[in-house]
Amino acid sequence: MSAFLRACRRQPTEYTPIWLMRQAGRYQKEYRAIREKVSFIELCKDPALACEVTVRAVDQLDVDAGIIFADILLILEPLGIGFEFTDDQGPRIGTPVRSAEQIDAVREEIDAAVALSYVMEAIRLTRAELSVPLIGFAGAPFTLASYMIEGGRSTTFYETKQLMHRDPGAWNALMGKLAQAIAQYLNAQVKAGAQALQLFDSWVGCLSPADYVRFVLPHVRTIFEQLDPAVPSIHFGTGNPALYPLLKAAGGDVVGVDWRVPLGAQWDTLGKQEVAIMGNLDPAVLLAPRDVMNRAADVVLQEAAGSPGHIFNLGHGVMPAAQVDQVRALVDHVHEASRR
Ligand code: CP3
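^ thats the input. predicted complex w/ coproporphyrinogen III below
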């Protein structure tokens, strides 16, 4: 079995496996060249191009896993929520969902294998070309709901929290529909060939632990309960260290943590015998001089202390300003410095 899949299972590996969130993206000149010809959505919906972009990231970086090129927002289309990607503002939802009537109108069930068949086809094509495992993914209910309700990017999440507190019934109805659709979508990706899954709860860190327990955790738990246990799952959240024990409780074989926590102490808190851990280099360190970056990566490796079950990653995605040779140097350094 590959080092990445073994680490997901907390089995010993000869070196620490590494992959990077957003390992395919604008920091690569080949990606920018494709994006001059097609929009981001067109790229996501073209299986041959999505496969090309996914495989190129693995080849250029020599990482231990690929992640299918797609986006967490694609599932909104079959749910009946129109959106677009703008060049400057990021994603924009046509009509934000803010009333009980609008939540009623969100579709109950999707057949992801049909509605998102282009993702399934991209997974099949990519599996045929990759020699490392392929990760499928989805956005978590809170993060998706926040886009639907805010209408785009937010720093305060006031609209989302307002709906959650004003009308818990409507909130739970929305979260329940999202959880069902997400579970169905993730299982369809496994059928198409995904060998591991990641649930991205990128913005859930804006919540207090008590609100996470009441308004989010039960819904996320229903997703993990429906996933095939033969395929390891990664539960990623950022921004709020107090939530990590709760993310673990909600489910997943691996908890993905950001750089705001010391990885070793966080892993001790979660239980090294109970869950694997992914992380957690600050992506900004990619912009530092190479020796500074390597020292920072060494700190992460020392925190993990070679214990089985550490998957090296950034605490969030590679940024567009990163340089490909620097990112590749990080991967090479982690492989060399962790060899046992
Ligand atoms: O390489 C990979 O990691 C796989 C592809 C991937 C993308 N988005 C491609 C993408 C994955 C796993 C995502 C997940 C995603 N999408 C998340 C969760 C992870 C995170 O970063 O927190 C979120 C919140 C989104 C929503 C999203 N998509 C935003 C906010 C934006 C705009 C910001 C930006 O970086 O432009 C996107 C667009 C997007 N998704 C791009 C890529 C490569 C850039 C699109 C482009 O202009 O080419």
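The beta strands are 66-67, 83-86, 90-93, 134-139, 196-201, 233-237, 254-256, 276-281, 310-314.
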